[in-house]
Amino acid sequence: MSQPSVISRRVATTAAVSLALVAGLAACAGPRSNDGGGDGAGSGASGKPQKGGTLTVLNSNPQEDFDPARLYTSGGGNVPSLVFRTLTTRNRENGEAGAQVVPDLATDLGTPSKNATVWTYTLKDGLKYEDGTAITSGDIKYGIERSFAAELSGGAPYLRDWLIGGADYQGPYKDKKGLDSIEVPDDKTIVFHLNKPEGEFPYLATQTQTTPVPKAKDTGTTYEEHPVSSGPYKVVSNENDGERLVLERNPHWSAATDEERKAYPDKIDVRSGLDSAVINQRLSASQGADAAAVTTDTNLGPAELAKVSGDKKLAARVGTGHFGYTNYIAFNPKVKPFDDPKVRQAISYAVDRSSVINAAGGSSLAEPATTYLPNQKSFGYTPYDHFPAGKTGNAAKAKELLKEAGHPKGLKVTLTHSNDKDFETSPEIATALQAALKKAGITVELKGLESNDYSDTIHSASKEPGFFLAHWGADWPSGGPFLAPIFDGRQIVKDGANFNTAFLDDAAVNKEIDEINKLTDLKAAAARWGALDKKIGEQALTVPLFHPVYKRLFGQDVKNVVISDWTGVLDISQAAVK
């Protein structure tokens, strides 16, 4: 997962926001702001936002694979959402309201069959591409089908998993017949046939794979150089695989068909491959074009944040974002002594979350977590703390449990972590935990691994350690893509990337996941996800540590700052520079 703009169930392999999620993301606090936009929401230069000018985006990571088939984004992404419209999208509002799914190309969130295995969408009137031709339901079908082609891989796996026949389909370049499970009875109607009930299909329909692609304009692997726009901006240049991306207005986009994107600037200039310190320096100085600049992937670090907080003018230009993301300790119950629930509980009690928060950059950049699900309504957040450690750990209770487990003199364990300086699974977090557990008689040896080795090790069923740091971010703001990959026994992968690190295969948990997936009432589903999280939490298979908070600067001329809980970052589609 990357920073929030690219949030995926693989967020755990790349560090938020991806995520988007990444640390995309993805995906980093003092008291949480009520509007979710935080310190800088709605601020910027004074006056009502107007159309015109150039918005500059300064990012560390290039906008690679700028093809709707290859992107792994939810809510339509951020920069991608300016060019690619989808069947549904995220609500472009601050905070909690921004975690809702709303129609985009479609007239509504879709009409499900009684058992949620068939979803029907009707397109709005007046939808056009950048060349003025009409967007049809057949174009959306084709856009989805090309995402199955091996040469255009990289997108989310859900359509392959959910559509009847999807697992074996090779894409339109090899199979021109197409997928029978996607029907287009006319130019404005598209029908999806699923192999099991999926009440959250409206969330999936925000993925860029539902972007329309005109078959006659498809150039395969080079389509990313000039994809045909269905959004308010079109690509005029794409240099070095997204390192420099320039967008200008699509004259055939109509605001009458698009309630979500404001599209104030005349031009969007995306410059990537920059050092994070340089980005923050440029945004802080806010000189020349940088006065009208933002970033979607670069946080303020602890030292930078301290400096900014001491300057009222700079502090007014900091946006605060929250994204569905949890950093936690993971246990492998197949490895001793973690096969004993009392040992896992003891560690849960021994954790000092205050020291962990400090190691993560302080209370402005991290919020303590006692639930696996993020503390947001859309996920079904249900407060619980099964093993209350307080702010600094409960060493006495931990020692008591260790004695009951047959370790009256304590025990020695190894904690695996990443060597990346990401303030999430890094040495700083590991060291804080080492010190806290020592108070409970648990001697912790630290084992740091380089990024790729760390990812390969913790996601290998055969090599997974017993005790390690991990994190997870949301493909969309719901409990489904948060709990199912981690706790559904049918998603255990023995040969490949496995995310069910506890190897939990509980029939009752699996059944409840299936029952919740049948619900098309997203609020009712959220409540059930929260209850399931609380129930699973009793097994102490993880120790939730903290949820990251994103603090990001924006230029002094930027107006209309909107930061939703879906992405956690400034929404480019709402920003103005005039």
Automatic annotation (TrEMBL):
Signal peptide stretch:
1-29
What is the recorded name of this protein? Extracellular solute-binding protein family 5
Task: Write out the biased-composition intervals (Gly residues).
Answer: 35-45
Q: Where does the record place the region Disordered?
A: 34-65, 211-237
Q: Which organism is it from?
A: Streptomyces pratensis (strain ATCC 33331 / IAF-45CD)
Quote the Pfam families the UniProt record gives.
Answer: SBP_bac_5 (PF00496)
The source's domain of life comes to Bacteria
The record's Gene Ontology cellular component field reads: ATP-binding cassette (ABC) transporter complex; periplasmic space
Q: Which UniProt keywords apply?
A: Signal
One GO process term, biological-process aspect: peptide transport
A molecular function (GO) held by this record is: peptide transmembrane transporter activity
Q: Which residues form the Solute-binding protein family domain?
A: 100-490
- Basic and acidic residues composition bias: which ranges? 215-227
